[in-house]
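Sequence only, no structure available. Ideas?
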Amino acid sequence: MITNYVEKLRQYINENEEISTFDLVEIMGAHTSFLILLLILSLLNIILAPLPINSFIIGIPLTLFSICYLFGIKEGIFSKKLFKKSVNCTAWRKHIHKVSHYIRKIFVISKPRFHYLSRLHRRLVSGFVLSTISLLIFLPIPFINTSGSVTMIMVLLGIIQKDGLFLIIGYLLFAIHIIFSVSVIFYVVI
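Reply:
I predicted one. Tokens follow.
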């Protein structure tokens, strides 16, 4: 299922010079869950971490999609001018095949298990966690982006695959990530 979406994204990136948030929604479909987009963007954030403006380019869609997930917004906001701003996707071309490779590996280790723990998932709780992490990823602070993406991937896999183990690990990583982020921000500010 998700590998099909990654293949659609790969095809679009190879055929076009620019990509926008609106294009991402068109590729995945407006009725497709934002969780898949968040998962793909989180993986791209880890793979493209060395690029200088990466936190801004990927942070905006991550934040917007996670807020849409939090409030249950499915479509209608994607006609806005902000969503039609595009970026050059040539840097993504050489890395998009890695995303599909990692998604295949991830789905091998993530499977439905610990159903009683997966019941902890509530859209508002998970949406709050995803929104908070995506806002931290958006900030250009060293070491917060990659660890935030790992946290998002764990929570997203827990939700998508109904994997209670990954969901609990994701929530624990969220707590650790918040403590770490506050420490880094406090240290940088003071």
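The first helix runs from residue 2 to 15.
Hope that gets you unstuck.
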